[in-house]
Amino acid sequence: MCLLVLAWNVHPRYRLIVAANRDEYHDRPSTALAPWADAGDVLAGRDLRAGGTWLGVDRRRRFGVLTNYREQPGASSGAPSRGALIPSYLLEAQDPADYLRALQPQAERYGGFNLLLADGDGLWYASNRIAPFERRLAPGIYGLSNHRLDTPWPKLTRVRAGFEQWLTEATPVDAPAGLLALLDDRRPAGPCEYPSGSRERALAAPFVEHPQFGTRCSTVLLLEADGALWMREQGFDRHGRPTAQREYRLGAQEWC
Questions:
Q1: Using H for helix, E for strand and C for coil, what is the string for 132-199?
Q2: What digits encode the pLDDT tens for the residues 85-97?
Q3: 169: which of 14, 78, 146, 197 is 20 to 30 A away, CA to CA?
Q4: 167 phi and psi angles, rounded to 5 deg
């Protein structure tokens, strides 16, 4: 049950702002945010089981983020990995529109997914569980979890409200810290909605704490109009305790 909020061309300084929680099984191995040794133009975390990623950016400041579309039954064992969609976009020369048009004929082979892809000119949303498959997004504020874009799930509504408030305030010196604090909201749904201790109640919190499945990392991306980039990722262990933090601050022409 991942969650993210995003602002596209609404902030006076940042072209793109993303704050995202990645939720995953604790026993699924992955690496933290870093340049990929075998694909030096990609900066992302990495799923070590299938080799893909959930969120990344490239040298040209193109961006992609993925969430699964929650449904029953889940993806079949023979379906291709949805995590391959982000590096596939970042490693090709296509703009988001061309990439999504090429993807659409084979999109049904995958389990349900949501994709947000951006380059210097546009932000696009795609899902293989709704029609139309893809659409360009206007400047604005968006929220996404594991259903369609802007589905008003309480956890997403709560974080989005805090995000909108953050956008109206003067940007602090340590901008990612405030956004990471929004993502660290561990308040579950009320006991009248789900039994205490149930997995569904844990999933209803923005930050998921559960013995088998939970928030593995929180990531903030701030991208200026000229390409200057600031990314910070905070990792967490299976008990929800902070582990390593990674940060990259790059000038408009710099790469890591």
A1: CCEEEECCEEEEECCCCCCCCCHHHHHHHHHHHHHHHCCCCCCHHHHHHHHHCCCCCCCCCCCCCCCH
A2: 999 999 998 999 9
A3: 146
A4: -70, -25
Buried b (16+ CB within 10 A) or exposed e, 85-106: bbbebbeeebbbbebbeebeee
Residues 181-207 pLDDT 10s: 999 999 986 665 555 556 777 889 999
Q: Which single residue is written with the structure tokens 């200057």?
A: 228
Which residues face 207 on adjacent strands? none
Q: What is the per-residue pLDDT across 66-76, written as a single tens digit (0 to 9) for each?
A: 999 998 776 66
Beta bridge partners, 235, equal: 217
pLDDT at 200: 77
Closest of 10, 14, 42, 18 to residue 182, by C-alpha: 18
Residues written for the chain: 256
Domain residue limits, the chain: 3-250
